[in-house]
Design a protein that fits this description.
Blueprint (H helix, E strand, L loop, with lengths): L1 H18 L5 E7 L7 H13 L4 E7 L2 H9 L7 E2 L3 H9 L3 E2 L12 H5 L2 H8 L11 E14 L5 H4 L14 E4 L2 H12 L1 H6 L4 H5 L4 H15 L2 E5 L3 H6 L5 E5 H12 L5 E4 L5 E11 L5 H11 L2 H11 L2 E2 L4 H6 L7 E2 L11 E2 L8 H4 L2 E3 L7 H12 L5 H20 L15
Parallel strand pairs: 1-2, 1-3, 6-7, 6-8, 10-14
Antiparallel strand pairs: 4-10, 5-8, 5-9, 5-10, 5-11, 12-13
Length: 431
């Protein structure tokens, strides 16, 4: 599939360079393994049927947000649609690097963006920039939470219900933490500022924008206490170590957690995931149209097509992540009578008692104590410097053993290929 996609993209690029007919080409730049690629030719046919215009999609992928941003910000690449993470959407919005979505070009009958936007998503995107409504410039694609993945045979629910579990000496040497400073800083600061949060002297959203020297120092001091018990700072191998029982606590993303829980069950290891009681962060990836796009109309129609319920469901099934689409058809596709009923009325109006996996869709009580992380602008360098100091150069011997094992496992996986949808649920380096 990837070779075929590459050849088709190369052919489309060659066609454009030869004919100069750029208005018949749509350049899409997305994360690797983050779409059901069979929907791309379907979009081309759908676009022709709805507009009477031919379109060829040039589909390319990236693995790091900053790589994508640099190509647009510095290289002025003419991508028509890209899919950055939340803080990059904020950075691009604040820097004037996004074009507004051309809603007027889409008939009401097929405007799936307007029909299926979750009220929760709309509210979160409105908070990205109080002065500019991000909903006019972006549409959420997938989303999730940050929490604790834990081995139920070794760690109790009560122990896992606080972020301080990563400092618990009982689990020293068996704790895994994401090598993602932004996703670690937020939860730790939320834990450290519990008194202020309970008193109401600060809000979660204010904490997510707090890049003060004092807060950075507090988080750094806490992480230095955590450090000696950390089995590994990981970008992707942590969930695999959890399934093998080498780790028992992991600060992780919900998308990785779903994969790990399912994979661990096949080898008799029981894992679970929760968002600690103190609160946490939510993350989003979303579709945007960059400033230098050449086909704004087709880009808007493509984003709209991605919001069609059946397409959203197929992309969920292919990638293993949770769609930000608020259509009831999406909810119905996730119903599971083996799960306890939870309140999802914040996301799907009227769905106040539905049986779905709470790792995929958190209960309203959980989401009420979560907030979106924000871009720090120039202060991001302070965060990265703190992270480098905490990790230092003295990684434990266990870390190198784990990395070696992970590399061998990764090579084996390449040779054996992926056998099912669950194995596709691997996290990209979002941060």
């Amino acid at each position: 599939m990837k070779i075929k996609s590459f050849l088709l993209a190369a052919l489309a690029v060659l066609t454009v360079s030869c004919t100069g007919d750029r208005d018949k080409v749509l350049k899409v730049y997305n994360w690797s393994d983050y779409i059901d690629e069979s929907v791309i030719p379907e979009f081309e046919q759908w676009y022709l049927e709805k507009t009477g215009e031919e379109i060829s999609v040039v589909y390319q992928t990236f693995d790091v947000n900053e790589t994508m941003l640099s190509k647009i910000e510095k290289g002025h690449e003419d991508y028509d649609v890209v899919c950055p993470s939340d803080y990059i959407i904020e950075r691009m919005l604040n820097s004037g690097l996004l074009l507004p979505l051309d809603f007027a070009s889409i008939p009401d009958s097929v405007n799936y963006i307007a029909l299926n936007r979750s009220p929760y998503i709309q509210g979160v995107f409105r908070d990205i920039n109080p002065e500019i409504d991000a909903n006019a410039y972006s549409v959420a694609y997938m989303w999730g939470t940050t929490g604790i993945l834990y081995n139920t045979a070794e760690v109790s629910t009560e122990e896992a219900s606080t972020w301080d579990v990563i400092r618990n000496p009982k689990f020293s040497g068996r704790i895994l933490i994401k090598d993602a400073p932004r996703d670690v800083y937020g939860p730790v600061l939320i834990y450290l500022r519990q008194k202020e949060l309970q008193e109401g002297s600060v809000t979660l959203q204010e904490l997510m924008r707090d890049s003060s020297d004092g807060s950075i120092a507090d988080v750094e001091n806490y992480l230095r206490e955590v450090k000696d018990g950390v089995l590994g700072w990981e970008a992707d191998f942590g969930k695999d170590q959890m399934t093998k029982g080498r780790g028992v606590v992991s600060l992780n993303w919900s998308g990785d957690a779903v994969w790990a829980i399912e994979e661990a069950a096949t080898v008799g290891v029981s894992l679970d995931y929760l968002v600690p009681e103190e609160g946490s962060t939510v993350w989003f990836d979303g579709w945007v149209i960059p400033k230098y796009a050449k086909n704004q109309k087709a880009a808007t129609w493509f984003i709209d097509f991605m919001c069609r319920p059946d397409i959203a469901i197929r992309n969920m099934e292919e990638t293993g992540y949770v769609s930000a689409n608020g259509a009831m058809e999406v909810l119905e596709s996730q119903l599971d009578e083996e799960c306890e009923p939870i309140d999802l009325s914040y996301f799907f109006p009227g769905a106040d008692s539905v049986c779905v996996n709470p790792v995929l869709y958190p209960d309203k009580a959980v989401i009420d104590r979560c907030a979106l992380e924000h871009d720090w602008g120039a202060d991001t360098d302070k965060l990265l410097a703190m992270w480098a100091r905490v990790k230092g150069d003295n990684a434990s011997s266990w870390t190198f053993v784990i990395i070696a094992v992970a590399l061998v496992a990764a090579l084996a996986a390449v040779v054996a290929s992926r056998r099912n949808a669950a194995q596709r649920r691997r996290r990209r380096s979002r941060r």
